[in-house]
Specification:
The protein is an alpha/beta fold. The chain has helices spanning about 15-20, 35-55, 70-80, 95-110, 125-130, 155-165, 185, 235-250, 255-275, 300-310, 320-325, 330-335, 340-345, 355-375, 380-385; strands at about 1-5, 65, 90, 110-115, 135-140, 170, 190-195, 205-210, 280, 290-295, 315, 345-350. It has 2 domains: about 1-10 and about 255-375, Aspartate Aminotransferase, domain 1; about 15-250, Aspartate Aminotransferase, domain 2. It has a 7-stranded mixed β-sheet, sandwiched between helices. Helix 7 (about 185) links the parallel strand 6 and strand 7 (about 190-195). The radius of gyration is 21 Å and the shape is globular. It starts with a strand and ends with a helix.
Length: about 375
């Protein structure tokens, strides 16, 4: 099968799994134990924390382990806003549901939440952010790169605005880390969410970067692990795998970036030149190197995914977390897309295991299935398919 849904999840790397295996069996100790088994587990966690910190240029003690990107996002929002009752929270209208759903909770608790609009490329307006920030603002959260259309936001400039107004900044960098250079010191963020299974590591583990000096209220209470910031026995094997995945991503970042971008550009070039009534969505330059998001007019995206799957090609319309709920993409709606353009969307995200021949095969299949679907489309006469 040809897998082109790497924004949803990535296959675990062989070397990552190999490094994890001993911590399922012989090195099974609880890190909270003070005997040898516990010390081995603690040492493994410390090593992984260092590897993750090296990938984003932070200090190891600024890395807080979580169960993944969703928990990291929730921890950041809860940890800051719970200390700022009556204050304001600002975010963008195209965030992942792991930000937007906590926003609903904040609103129900009486917090003022401002949603920044985006343009047709999915980019926020810095001037609108500047005018929205006030003395009431406690936290701003804007994703580094969008999970659907791949648009990369100007986080460094956003951080400068936040610092000018003495406001904390969180960014959801789950899609970006490991694909583009991410340096927390250069970006100027105070909190940043990352996830393991987006970079060929295991599922169920992530981290929240918390800049030294930023105080959070704990989101999960219990035995006081993670310096009291996230209770619960650590998932040692997953943490080890996450650390190894970060090490691999750091060592191969530039090569992987170039290879992914070459594959993506080849995909976009062929689709754009060989199929009619198709558009590429997202920012043309400021976008993730592996993301290609299309709209095929006269085609239903769900039908297209099913047809591709019949040809053993895995694709998506957008967030894997939203597909099963059959929700129209809030990202594309926020970008001003008409319903017809939203329903015809397709996201293809390449990974380090993909090849040019797979891309060529995918485009050949796409041409076939799009023609089949357009032959029975109610818009056939409108567009002259």
């Amino acid at each position: 099968m040809i897998y082109l849904d790497h924004a949803a999840s990535t296959p675990i790397a062989d070397s990552v799994l190999e490094e994890m295996l001993p911590y399922f069996k012989e090195n099974f100790g609880n890190p909270s134990s003070i005997h040898r088994y516990g010390r081995i587990a603690t040492k493994a966690i410390d090593s992984a924390r260092k590897r993750i910190a090296e990938l984003i240029n932070s200090n190891p003690n600024e890395i807080l382990f979580t169960s993944g990107g969703t928990e990291s996002n929730n921890t950041a929002l809860h940890g800051i806003m719970s200390q700022n009752k009556g204050k304001q929270f600002i975010t963008s209208s195209i965030e992942h549901d792991a930000i937007l759903e906590p926003c609903k909770k904040l609103e129900s608790l009486g917090f003022d939440v401002i949603y920044l609009s985006v343009d047709s490329a999915g980019m926020i307006d810095l001037a609108k952010l500047e005018s929205a920030v006030s003395e009431k603002t406690a936290l701003v959260s804007v994703m580094l790169a969008n999970n659907e259309v791949g648009t990369i936001q100007p986080i460094k400039e956003i951080a400068q605005i936040c610092k000018k107004h003495n406001v904390l900044l969180h960014t959801d960098a789950v899609q970006a880390v490991g694909k583009i250079p991410v340096n927390v010191k250069d970006l100027g963020v105070d909190l940043m969410s990352i996830s393991s299974h987006k970079i060929n590591g295991p599922k169920g583990i992530g981290a929240l970067y918390v800049r030294r000096g930023v105080n959070l209220d704990p989101f999960i209470l219990g035995g006081g692990q993670e310096n009291g910031m996230r209770s619960g026995t650590e998932s040692v094997a997953n943490i080890v795998g996450f650390g190894k995945a970060c090490q691999i991503a750091r060592e191969n970042l530039q090569n992987n970036h170039n290879n992914l971008q070459d594959l993506r550009d080849h995909l976009i070039q062929r689709v754009s030149s060989e199929l009619s009534h198709v558009s590429v969505n997202g920012h043309p330059q400021m976008r993730l190197p592996n993301n290609a998001h299309f709209t095929f007019l006269g085609v239903n995206g769900e039908d297209l995914i099913i047809k591709l799957d019949e040809h053993e090609i895995a694709a998506s319309t957008g967030s894997a977390c939203s597909v099963k709920t059959q929700k129209a993409s809030h990202v594309l709606m926020a970008m001003g897309f008409a319903h017809e353009k939203i329903t015809g969307s397709l996201r293809l995200t390449v990974g380090i295991s993909n090849t040019k021949s797979e891309i060529d095969q995918t485009v050949d299949v796409l041409k076939q299935v799009v023609a089949e679907l357009r032959a029975v489309s109610p818009f056939k006469a409108k567009y002259g398919f």
